[in-house]
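Notes continue from the previous slide.

Worked example: a multi-chain complex. Inputs as given:
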Amino acid sequence: MPTKHDHKKGMGTSFKRTPQRLAILAYLDGNTSHPSADDIYRAVSKKYHSMSFATVYNTLNTLAKAGTIRELTIDPVRKRFDPDVSRHHHLMCVHCGKIVDITEGLTVDLPKELAQDFEVLGSHIEFHGHCAQCKKKRKAS
Amino acid sequence: MPTKHDHKKGMGTSFKRTPQRLAILAYLDGNTSHPSADDIYRAVSKKYHSMSFATVYNTLNTLAKAGTIRELTIDPVRKRFDPDVSRHHHLMCVHCGKIVDITEGLTVDLPKELAQDFEVLGSHIEFHGHCAQCKKKRKAS
DNA sequence: ATAAATGCAAAGCATTTGCAGTAAA
DNA sequence: TTTACTGCAAATGCTTTGCATTTAT
């Protein structure tokens, strides 16, 4: 019988380290391929046969909300995920879908008249085009 | 029906100027709201009661392929469309979804070592954050 | 003990497609 | 007449959700 009223509010602050989540984090760690949820599901399923899409999406959304990973919108078809949350930019091949990091020398500043009104949370530069391999293939055909 | 713009089609196919397409083009002309397909559907349906989503999507895809409009991926939930195909960038409020044009002074160049391999078709800078109105509302609550 | 995560299947949206009828050229 | 477009509805693809069960803490 609780004589003490020690209700803590379950405000969802704890992150449980389940094997599924650890497997997803392990797959993402150092991964520069900018995988989609499906890529991650397929990769992690090889180890965890019971892995479900729901778990992958739940985990990715939780991690993104926590700022542990970044959700990219550069691919018009599906979300892509990036474990590198440092400031950098991307280049995507519109033919094969490959996404490459751009880590050097690109900085952008919002013009002052907008910067006054708008609270900037993040910025991102994206390049679209054809990668070396796909350029070759196109010439060939 | 004559329009002021001549579309050169190429590809051996002709672009038929149907009333539905003209209505979509009229709605987009000078529009800086970066509407989604659904926004366009709802707006144009008021005039054309029989308008279908298929026609909206078909038309938008045709126009985007022809380079008459631009498809934006800045919104993670749905595609947004921009009749301004000149080089400019965008800022989006993550709270209300509003997208604003940035036309001044931002230029980006791909680092040389990437520029050699990669054929750049386009580049785009995007800022995410809170607009003035949503900033206020957040403070208030 | 208990709050939270899992897995499944079903649902939810945005977008695309097949096809028969219709209209622009 | 010929070819392309429209509209409907069904289908697709990505993502989310409800819920009963299991698990980390």
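Summary box: Chain A touches chain B through 35 residues (CB under 8 Å). Residues 98 and 141 of chain A are 20 Å apart (CA to CA).
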